[in-house]
Amino acid sequence: MIGFIRRYFVKTVSIFVALLFVYAAGSKLLDFENFQVQLAQSPLLSAYSGIISYGVIIVEFLVAILLCIDRSRLAGLYASLGLLAAFTIYIFLILKFSDFVPCSCGGILEKLGWEEHLIFNIFFLLVTFAGIFILSRRSGAKALKTLLLSCITTIISCLIVILMFLSSENIIKKENNFTRRFLQHPILENGVFDLGVNSYYFAGMADGNIYFGNVTTPLFISKIDTGLQSFTRTKIKLDNTDHAFKSLQLKIKSPYFYLYDGNVPVIYRGRLGDSVAHTISYGDAFFNQLTVLDSAKFGLRTQRKLDNQYTIASLDLNREPKTELKNEILQKQVDGVFDIDGLLISDSEFGNMVYTYFYRNQFIVLDSKFNVQNRFNTIDTTKTANISVIRLSDGRTKMNAPAFSVNKGFALFGNLIFNRSNLKGKHEPSSTWKNSSIIDVYRTDEQRYIGSFYIRNKNGKGMSSLVSDGHNIYALVDNEIQRYKIREGAFK
Fold this sequence. Notes:
492 residues, alpha+beta, Neuraminidase, 2 domains, 4-stranded antiparallel β-sheet
């Protein structure tokens, strides 16, 4: 049995690794334009995307050839070891140190998550090392020499990628020309509840309860009282399930809950406490964001048919036509899609809406009739979206460099915005940014920055979203909901 393994193991490993490289290189070559764009989006490789896009494909094909020839098989295995080590450390750095994870794989590998891809690479790395060891021993090489050469190959490959990481200006949050005012203990943590999983998101608040949707079980409404004591889940039945949903989302506005999927132009509504949701809108509009104004009126973000640019729209089920575009609200700077990307939220108590841009320092305050009340700026200096966009030959538009993100999300209560910033101000230590999410507080009725505070990470993961009822702030951090009491007068 051992003799059989020694005889066929190396050849089998070489064939499988060669097929892996041929498949990977072929996938990149068949969609080369998209592969170049994906590399340009990488926070590690954007500065080197041009040469790497060609180099990786050429090297993968060359290594596959070396593996298929008996005389060059050992060299091919060493080259495979170095290439796999580089890919593995790259994935590790992306997962641990990048604000976002781009994709630069094609075909079946594109379906793998990044953690699964890391395990996949480590497995082939170990198998390749085993092939090197067996083949080297067969040719009379000493075990220590083989181990030393393998380690040197791996270390050099990893160091090259790490040096790219350290030299990339895009991976580091630059210090910006603004100074935050950190408030003196504006919030105090006074409650936490373990939700068990980290796939929840806030759907709304009503009647002393906080409601959650879940991306993995979208037909469940979960709720917990504001005291974080009683947690329940209810499964929802839809009156019509003959739709190819991509991502059902949940919103709460008392006394109703709403389920929707803008990829399918449908909105369901049910009464809180019931388990059945009925279709109230179908075919009225496609959209990618929705906020509830009342039981039959909604704010949408959609794309215009004429040029595919994002725009705000109103949907009123009691009016004809039901949908009306509000093209003057979002202001184009670069492409009308990425440059005006942002988040639309309404406040259930006061009825106003706010749209915050992701890539520039502005938020827009709207009344319930979609009139622009104010266009206010956040404290950073990014007035123009710092993005680079390319149109592919098939008509798709993509970013071809890492985006300079300004804002990551916000919560709205009354005339206060709790904005999660993505930029570091003057004299703010990098260590704090790695361990916390920073929240800047603004008013919606005047141009005023009130101050900032931190919400600490948990298990290396930052806050995913937050809501407020005016007395407390509730944050989702990893698998927990955390409650912070607002100190009286803290934001006045």
